Amino acid sequence: MKQKLVGILGGMGPFASAEFVNTIYEQNLNLGMEQNKPRVVLCSDPSIPDRTSSIEAGTNDAVTQKLISLWEQMSCMGIEVLIIPCITSHYYVQQYPEAMREMMVNLVTLTLDEVERSDRTYLLFATNGSYRTRLLEHERILIPSVEDQVRIHELLYTMKQYGSRPDLLRQAYDVALSLVEHYGADGWISGCTEFHLLTRYVMREQEAMASRILDPLMLVARAWPQFAF
Questions:
Q1: CA of 20: how far to CAs of 64, 117, 129, 201, 211, in Å?
Q2: What does the DSSP 8-state code read for residue 104?
């Protein structure tokens, strides 16, 4: 069966969407020879306006217009499935054209479905924009205090700037673990895709902890045949 061409509308931030492509291939080794590997087009455009700033300022049109324009360009390449690796951008979903929504994998829905299937309690790590718009709400999703939300947001934006710098990932892991323990959660949700960098770090360096992370991009990568065939 021929695979669909999957478009990844990334750049929010660029390090996370680039690492997501690596994750897709690493999690689908069972597809066999090179010609059977996932068919992916990555559009990484960091010039997309900041989502949290746009939400806070009420200037959402600039973000949606840019995302729609990039989707239209990717559609000309023949993509059949769309993944936008930015949780905060899902706030704008209802403003996208119907055709764009129909081909889009909704990371928020995937995450909430996984929480519903699990019996675990998760602490939400997200941007201020995602906290403010309450994109991820469930009785077993814990929301940090406003003070800790600011701390998490600042950490995420440092990761957007510096990517997978080892000392930064160690710091992020220490912060994440201390907050999970402080709130009495079983694990955390990577409610900003920048935390995918941390997921990959944990899988390499702290493997026992990896099962306690609910990462939307990892969910997609592991269920790739569901979306691509």
A1: 22, 24, 22, 13, 18
A2: B
**Nearest 5 degrees, angle CA 176-CA 181-CA 185?**
90
User: How far is 168 from 60, CA to CA, in rounded Å?
Assistant: 31
Q: Could you report the per-residue pLDDT of 116-150, keeping only the tens digit for each?
A: 999 999 999 999 999 999 999 999 999 999 999 99
SS3 6: strand
pLDDT in tens, 79-91: 999 999 999 999 9
CA distance 178 to 35: 44
Instruction: Give the Cα separation of 5 and 2 in Å (integer).
Output: 9
Residues with Cβ within 8 Å of 217's Cβ and at least 6 positions away in sequence, in order, are 16, 20, 23, 85, 107, 190, 193, 196, 199
Report the C-alpha gap between 192 and 69 in whole angstroms: 23
Instruction: List domains and CATH numbers for the chain.
Output: 6-107+219-228 (3.40.50.1860), 108-215 (3.40.50.1860)
Pairwise CA distance, residues 205 & 19, whole Å: 16
